[in-house]
Each structure stands twice: as C-alpha cells, then as structure tokens.
Write a structure and sequence with these properties.
Length: 134
C-alpha cells in the first residue's frame, strides 16, 4: 500500500497551517535532530526511522508513533533529511492503518547542491521555513 503523495516543505507548511489536527513526524536520527536542527512548528513528533550510528531500522516505529498519541484519523506528514526515509515511513504507516500520510519530498536539508552541500537547493531550511537548532 502506498501513501497519499509527495509534498514539498512549503506545501507541507501551508497544509499544516490550516489543519490543527495534522502532525509532522520527523523520522531522522537523534544526531540529526541535535546537530542539524528541527522544524520550529506545533505538532512536531520525533520518531527515529533508523538508529544512529548503526543505521538499523527501528522495528518499533509504528508502536512509537502510536505511543505519541497519534491516531489514524489525523493527517501525517513524514519528514527526513531528503525525502527517502520519510517515504518508506509513510508507506509503512499507510500499510499499518494510517490512511492519510504524506511524504515531505525535499526533506529538512534537501538535495545535495552543485557545491556538494545540502540546504542550498531545496528542503525545509532552504525554503526559509521556521526551524531551530536542536
């Protein structure tokens, strides 16, 4: 089963502004949250898709999402660094009974730009959306 679709960071920010029941689930690692930063928004939940430093997938991901009080009737926006892990997380949550999941396709830092750096082409930070240092 596949998730509802892909949205950019800006589209996600605009959507959550008009839906107080929506949540953003940041699936990056605790190291990324602490050293790269976090969206500075209401209804942000942190649930690692993989662990740091091993990269092992979090087998308790769905249970941890539910433990945050997130319910199947909410609209969920999944965010990672560049949209890959969050797409997998959105697919799993959809298959697990959460019917309205979206992937933030450009992620928090976005794609690698011509200079070899992230946050220069697209992504939450590049779009100038609110964020804070972890």
């Amino acid at each position: 089963m596949t998730y509802k679709g892909d949205l950019t960071s800006q589209e996600t920010y605009d959507a959550i502004a008009s839906d107080p029941n929506a949540v953003v689930i940041d699936v990056r690692t605790n190291a990324e949250w602490n050293f790269v930063g976090l969206p500075a928004i209401e209804n942000l939940h942190l649930v690692q898709w993989t662990s740091f430093p091993t990269g092992a997938r979090n087998e308790n991901f769905v249970a941890e999402v539910k433990a945050k009080g997130i319910t199947e009737d909410q609209t969920l926006y999944l965010l990672c660094r560049s949209g890959q892990r969050s797409a997998a997380a959105a697919s799993l949550l959809t298959a697990s009974g959460f019917p309205t999941c979206y992937n933030v396709s450009d992620g928090f830092e976005g794609d690698i730009g011509p200079s070899g750096h992230r946050s220069t082409v697209n992504g939450w930070k590049h779009a100038g959306l609110p964020w804070r240092q972890g």
